[in-house]
Structure to design on (127 residues):
C-alpha cells in the first residue's frame, strides 16, 4: 500500500523521482539539463519549495515567476502549453506512483494553479 505524504523526507523523494523523469524527457529535459548546473542544490530548493507549500514555514527563498521568465527568454519563447502539460503529467504520475491521500490531491492542484500563473507571467513578458 502506498503511504501518505507526511513530512519533508517524503517530499524529497517525490522531487527526486519527478526530476528523473523530467531530465530524461525528450521534449523538455533539455530546458532543465541546460540550465541547472548544481542538481543537489536545485533538488534541495524544490524540496524547500514544496515543503513550504504543503506544511508552511519560510524555508524557500526564491521567485519562481522571475526564474521562469528568465528561462523562457533564454530559450527564446519556446516554452508553451505543451511543455507545461508534460511537466504537470509527470508531477501527477510521480505523486500517484509513490503516495496516496489528501496531500496528493493538494499537490496536484497547487502545481496546476501555479503553472497557470507562471505561464501567464511568461506570456506577458513576451510583449
Ligand atoms: C507547471 C508548473 C511548474 C512549477 C510549479 C514549477 C516550479 C518551479 C520552481 C519552484 C522553480 C525554482 C525557482 C527558483 O527559485 O529558482 C523552478 C525552476 C525551474 N523551472 Fe519550473 N515549474 C513549472 C514548470 C516548468 C516548465 C514547463 C519548465 C520548462 C519547460 C520549467 C523550467 C524550469 C527551470 C529550467 C528551472 C531552473 C531555473 C534556474 O535555476 O535558473 N518549469 N520551477
Amino acid at each position: 500500500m502506498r503511504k501518505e505524504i507526511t513530512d519533508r523526507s517524503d517530499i524529497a523523494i517525490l522531487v527526486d523521482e519527478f526530476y528523473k523523469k523530467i531530465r530524461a524527457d525528450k521534449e523538455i529535459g533539455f530546458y532543465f539539463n541546460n540550465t541547472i548546473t548544481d542538481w543537489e542544490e536545485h533538488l534541495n530548493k524544490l524540496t524547500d519549495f514544496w515543503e513550504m507549500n504543503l506544511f508552511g514555514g519560510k524555508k524557500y527563498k526564491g521567485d519562481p515567476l522571475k526564474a521562469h521568465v528568465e528561462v523562457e527568454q533564454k530559450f527564446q519563447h519556446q516554452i508553451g502549453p505543451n511543455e507545461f502539460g508534460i511537466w504537470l503529467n509527470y508531477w501527477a504520475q510521480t505523486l500517484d506512483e509513490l503516495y496516496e491521500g489528501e496531500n496528493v490531491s493538494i499537490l496536484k492542484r497547487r502545481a496546476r494553479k501555479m503553472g497557470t500563473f507562471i505561464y501567464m507571467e511568461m506570456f506577458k513578458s513576451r510583449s
Summary: The chain has one domain: 8-125. The helical segments are 8-24, 29-33, 39-55, 64-74, 81-98, 102-125. The chain has six helices and no strands.
